[in-house]
């Protein structure tokens, strides 16, 4: 047993305590009553049988019956109440784990969230959990088994100790040698040996299952994609039918995949796993037979009454099961160690971005000036510069268009501006101060952003725009009108109409254009001093896109607005245009000035798209 496995499980248990102290306390109470539940009637039944067999009379027997019924009923009632509370708490563990991981993601630097290694860890944790509950769930189950085993061992020892201290009378014939210390030690050795070996074999069988967790990742992917989601995904439904793709799915999800009848796990179950588990159960049966022979022989020889036979046999079997459960728990703790390490590797990801402490000045006039100075950036763990020596100013209240081909660094600039990443070189200043010195959340509050990969919730329209369950309905209607989204008959409940059908079967499916208008309305509702639109109209045709920008030009008001696009419909409404090319600022100027220069990058981009705006 590695000490590291114990320390890992100890830390996991500490996490569970932080998530729900109530759960841990209920587990202790639950396992205690689960352990004594079979032992209480065992003890009093033995007393009753001994009383009847010994001629104790109807009165004495009646007393033992009353005690038996009362004690068993009391234990069963308390156990049932605690079990109900236990199940209620246990059913929340997945919710608590999701909250744990979600809180970690929300607290994490965006560059860590965006990292491929973090996403891989997230996927690994989910795969391990789905595969066999490995990770924090198994650590909790190990704790439950361990606690139950301890209570069972203590209770069964208390009930069985007189088995060894009750001697066979001298008239017991050859069985008197049962009284010798040597025989007692031999019997205990056999008892302990079989008790230990049986769970070791079962644990070894399970170790093969745990060892296949890495290989089962691909099988889980196949199951999740081909076996569960493929036929249900609406955006695949047309292709599935037109091209008859179910044949591919059935082939990939055939009998020889990880969990199929011809897969590796099936072969292991028929082979090593099955053999080891079978031997473990066989030794348990052998142990039961030896216990019956030993206890029966001592009772027949007169060491104790017939009633105690039931008690001692039950107590020894309970002791064996308790020791077996303890060993299996320790083995499962060891098997689970690597999976918990993966979880802790994720939870231990450190935030490296300086959060700052300066308060962002609250300005009613929205006069926040931002300057980018000698900014260069390359994404972590890469060597390619995405931006190189970029310098520019965002003038207060201006309409700035940032244009360029895909991959020219436009979106990356916005991520740096919003402090989702920090510059590799150079700096960004807010009113002359490095933005890294400002309180992070306060700094973020000056931006309303519509990213090109924005997402809407499967919640009512009003809550999507207000980003809250409580919102200003009049303000929501105002921004919807500003972006040109009419609440027609499709929106049967107005602002209370659910988007999509995930949470409400009467929810509506919104088009790409509608979704983008809702996202822009959300940004306008936030009413931050800086409005940034990063490819916000990619799902619209060029004419509709031009109409959106024409609307925005009117409603931006005194905000500083930044329009980012590889399409140029926004440029006619911009005060200034910055042209990006391969991570550099290629050109800066107004639309009229830049379009006159036939050698400019802007001239090339504009005339490649101009027919769409004529």
Task: Please explain how this structure is put together.
The structure is a single chain. This protein has helices at 3-19, 21-36, 39-53, 58-90, 93-107, 110-113, 116-132, 136-165, 181-211, 216-229, 234-243, 246-252, 264-270, 272-300, 306-347, 410-417, 440-444, 461-466, 473-483, 512-526, 542-555, 591-596, 601-609; strands spanning 370-377, 387-394, 399-403, 425-430, 433-434, 447-450, 530-534, 560-565, 576-581, 584-589. With 614 residues, it is α/β, with parallel strands linked by helices. The protein folds into 3 domains: 3-215 and 258-347, ABC transporter type 1, transmembrane domain (ABC transporter transmembrane region fold), CATH 1.20.1560.10; 218-257, no CATH class; 370-451 and 529-612, Rossmann fold (3-Layer(aba) Sandwich). A 6-stranded mixed beta sheet has the order 6-7-8-3-9-10. A 4-stranded antiparallel beta sheet has the order 2-1-4-5, covered by helices on one side. It is elongated, with a radius of gyration of 36 Å. The protein starts with a helix and ends in a 5-residue tail after the last helix.
